[in-house]
C-alpha cells in the first residue's frame, strides 16, 4: 500500500471569492510569493512531510526531494517516486516494482507541488495571522479557508519567510482530524532540468509492472 503525499491533498479548483472578502495584507504577501516562484525556470528542494491524526493515533513522516519546472515535477521519498510531465502522473513503488499511470486533472482536489504557490488565487479566502519566529527568522503566517464548505480541507496555514518570500511550510487541516505539514528546505533556484527529468524511464526499472489507469 502506498503512502500518499498528502501535501497533494489541497483543493485547487473552487469558486472564486470576491476581492472584498480578502485580507489585503495577506494578498500582498501571497502575490509576492507567487511572483517569486513563477519567475523561476525551475527549482529543487528537500522536503519533510508529517501526517498526524491524534484520534486515530496516526503519525507518519516522509522526507525526500522535489524538482519543479512549470507544471512539471518529480519527487522521491521513502521508496516512492512521482513524476508528472504536465499531462500524466507516474507513481512508482520500489518495493512492488510497480508504476501507476494516471492522467493529470487540474480539476482534481489533489494539489501538485507546482500549485503550492498559486492555489490561493482561486477558491480561498485568506487572512494574515500573527507572525511566527523560529531560529531567529520571522515568518508571516497566512490562513486560507475554502469557499466550498464541502471540501475535506477546511483550513490551510502557510508560513512565508518575511525577508525573501520563500515558503517554509504548508499545513492542511482536514475535517476527519488529519493534519499534514509539508516543509521545504535547502531550496535551490533554477536548477538544470531536461525533458528526461520529468519522464518515467521504464528501462531503468527492469520488469516493472505498469498499471495504466488513464
Automatic annotation (TrEMBL):
Matching Gene3D superfamilies: Lipoprotein localisation LolA/LolB/LppX
Statement: the UniProt record of this protein carries the keyword Signal: yes
InterPro entries from the UniProt entry: LolA/LolB/LppX, OM_lipoprot_carrier_LolA-like
Signal peptide start-end: 1-20
Keyword Lipoprotein tagged: yes
Lineage top rank: taxon: Bacteria
Keywords linked to the UniProt accession: Lipoprotein, Signal
Name this protein carries in UniProt: Outer membrane lipoprotein carrier protein LolA
Originating organism: Hymenobacter polaris
Amino acid at each position: 500500500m502506498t503512502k500518499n503525499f498528502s501535501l497533494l491533498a489541497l483543493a485547487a479548483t473552487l469558486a472564486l471569492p470576491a476581492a472584498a472578502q480578502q485580507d489585503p495584507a495577506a494578498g500582498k504577501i501571497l502575490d509576492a510569493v507567487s511572483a517569486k516562484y513563477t519567475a523561476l525556470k525551475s527549482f529543487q528542494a528537500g522536503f519533510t512531510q508529517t501526517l498526524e491524526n491524534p484520534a486515530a493515533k496516526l503519525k507518519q513522516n516522509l522526507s525526500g526531494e522535489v524538482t519543479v519546472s512549470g507544471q512539471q515535477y518529480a519527487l522521491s521519498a521513502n521508496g516512492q517516486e512521482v513524476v508528472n510531465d504536465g499531462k500524466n502522473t507516474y507513481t512508482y513503488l520500489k518495493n512492488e516494482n510497480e508504476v501507476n499511470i494516471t492522467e493529470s486533472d487540474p480539476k482534481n482536489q489533489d494539489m501538485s507541488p507546482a500549485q503550492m504557490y498559486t492555489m490561493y488565487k482561486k477558491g480561498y479566502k485568506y487572512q494574515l495571522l500573527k507572525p511566527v519566529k523560529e531560529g531567529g527568522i520571522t515568518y508571516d503566517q497566512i490562513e486560507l479557508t475554502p469557499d466550498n464548505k464541502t471540501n475535506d480541507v477546511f483550513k490551510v496555514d502557510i508560513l512565508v519567510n518575511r525577508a525573501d518570500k520563500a515558503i517554509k511550510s504548508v499545513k492542511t487541516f482536514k475535517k476527519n482530524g488529519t493534519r499534514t505539514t509539508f516543509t521545504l528546505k535547502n531550496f535551490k533556484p533554477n536548477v538544470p532540468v531536461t525533458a528526461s527529468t520529468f519522464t518515467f524511464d521504464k528501462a531503468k526499472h527492469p520488469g516493472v509492472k505498469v498499471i495504466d489507469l488513464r
